[in-house]
Design goal:
heterodimer; A: about 250 residues; Ubiquitin-like (UB roll); Alpha-Beta Plaits; 2 domains; 3-stranded antiparallel β-sheet; B: about 180 residues; 5-stranded parallel β-sheet; 7 strands; elongated; binds iron/sulfur cluster; binds FE2/S2 (inorganic) cluster
């Protein structure tokens, strides 16, 4: 028996033994899913759109933004699709008036909490937050803008951090910890005072753990993390490396 | 049919939205039969007139004069459009909100000038403590984001209003534009 045979036998054995297949409904469509798949993953496989912000294929789920909320028939509670698994026989609704309303409100709160001045942002035209406003039909906010006074950390040689644009999705924290293995990024304080930090809240440029790989910059959905030297609308994120990471993580899991 | 009476104004903005309005080019000329521009930087009228059908308000509310003006516009207009990002979000003008007015004035009129630094006090409107979007002061009927909103979106807005409909602008423009 070759090593390859052994590998494939082992793999199919595991599958037969442990993975259950569920069937349930999303937006009145019958779907089947492995029991360990999230509602978001299943919806995507079936080309059903659920808006997301903190989710990024290739990173662990965080459930931070709540834009992916969906309804499950018979339950008054809305659940985040990116961290909720399917269950046999449930009926998921991804787009009702109620959900659309809540999603817009969440988005409005994100916009009012920091200073997202799209017109002068490095990420103008390439920003996931800006695009979500279009997708969810948000043309203005119903809350008061907070206009907080926030700092920019431009101490790193090649990158800068602008807290004005940060949505606390924590993709930077996850990619740095899970993929690069440096864990330079973290979060300090709580709630509305939360901030992403490098090392023990010291200037990024003086971080002793940062490898300068730039993955955090590329996964950041907004202009919060950017490459130096980029002017308004010039910062286009390059995510080509993510599918490879996903693949590697997939092999890990088998 | 009587013409639709349109007024346009800019508060704390850069006039870019008005430039975009002019970018309608011949479409604006075609519309001339149906609309009359009764007030704004493009026409010669001193006072904001009564019985305006549609008011396009560019710019954020930044000074005491803006507050007065936007309230008068609301009173005298059937439909008030929050026209462009400064009106809708306060946009760039609001970048001063992180500082106190006095700090901003000092920076602009004293620290950054090469001679005769002096903060103007007479004959100019007083700045409000913060720049705020139009809808925080008066009720707004239509929001058209964009910096500036594209000419096509403005054309759609006016065409719909001419048909007597409140336009659904979803997907026609975006913040930052
Ligand atoms: S800096 Fe960017 S990636 Fe990090 S939490 Fe803020 S928005 Fe997310
Ligand atoms: S994408 Fe699910 S909570 Fe952010």
């Amino acid at each position: 028996m070759t090593a390859a045979d052994a590998f494939s036998r082992k793999k199919s054995n595991t599958e037969a033994r442990s993975v259950r297949i569920l069937t349930f409904k999303i937006d009145d469509r019958d779907v089947s899913a492995r029991e360990d798949e999230t509602i978001l993953a299943v919806a995507r496989q079936n080309n059903i759109y659920i808006p997301t912000l903190c989710h990024l294929d290739g990173l662990s789920e965080r459930g931070a933004c709540r834009l992916c909320i969906v309804e499950i028939k018979g339950s008054p509670k809305l659940v985040p699709a990116c961290v909720t698994r399917g269950r046999e026989g449930i009926e998921v609704i991804t787009n009702s008036e109620r959900i659309a309303d809540y999603r817009r409100k969440i988005l409005e709160l994100i916009f009012t909490e920091r200073n997202h001045v799209c017109s002068v942002c490095v990420s103008n035209g390439h920003c996931e937050l800006q695009q979500l406003a279009v997708n969810l039909g948000m043309t203005h906010v119903h809350y008061d803008y907070l206009y907080p006074r926030l700092a920019i950390d431009a101490s790193h040689e090649r990158f800068s951090l602008d807290h004005d644009r940060c949505v606390l999705c924590l993709r930077c924290v996850r990619v740095c910890d899970e993929i690069e293995g440096a864990h330079t990024w973290d979060v300090m304080k709580r709630g509305i005072n939360s901030r992403v930090i490098t090392d023990l809240n010291q200037p990024w440029g003086s971080s002793s753990t940062c490898t300068g790989c730039g993955k955090c910059v590329q996964v950041c959905p907004t202009g919060a993390l950017s490459e130096k030297g980029k002017s308004v609308a010039e910062m286009v994120k390059r995510r080509q490396f993510l599918p490879y990471l996903q693949l590697m993580r997939g092999v890990d899991r088998e | 049919m009587s013409k639709m009476r349109i007024a346009t104004t800019w508060l704390d903005g850069c006039s870019g939205c008005h430039m975009s309005l002019l970018d309608l080019d011949d479409r604006l000329a075609d519309m001339a039969q149906q609309i009359e521009i009764v007030y704004g930087p493009l026409v010669d009228a001193l006072e904001f007139p009564e019985a305006v059908d549609v008011a396009l308000v560019e710019g954020a509310v930044s000074s005491d004069a803006d507050v007065k003006k936007v309230r008068l516009i609301r009173e005298r207009s059937k439909i008030l459009v929050s026209f462009g990002d400064c009106a809708v979000t306060s946009n760039v003008p609001a970048m001063r909100n992180e500082f106190r007015v006095q700090e901003v004035l000092q920076r602009g009129y004293e620290e950054n000038v090469s001679c005769h630094g002096q903060i103007p006090g007479v004959g100019v409107p007083a700045l409000m403590p913060q720049v705020r979007p139009v809808h925080e002061y008066v009720e707004v009927d239509v929001f058209l984001p964009g910096c500036p909103p594209p000419a096509d979106a403005i054309f759609f807005l006016l065409s719909e209003l001419l048909q007597g409909r409140i336009p659904d602008l979803t997907g026609k423009s975006r913040f930052g534009a």
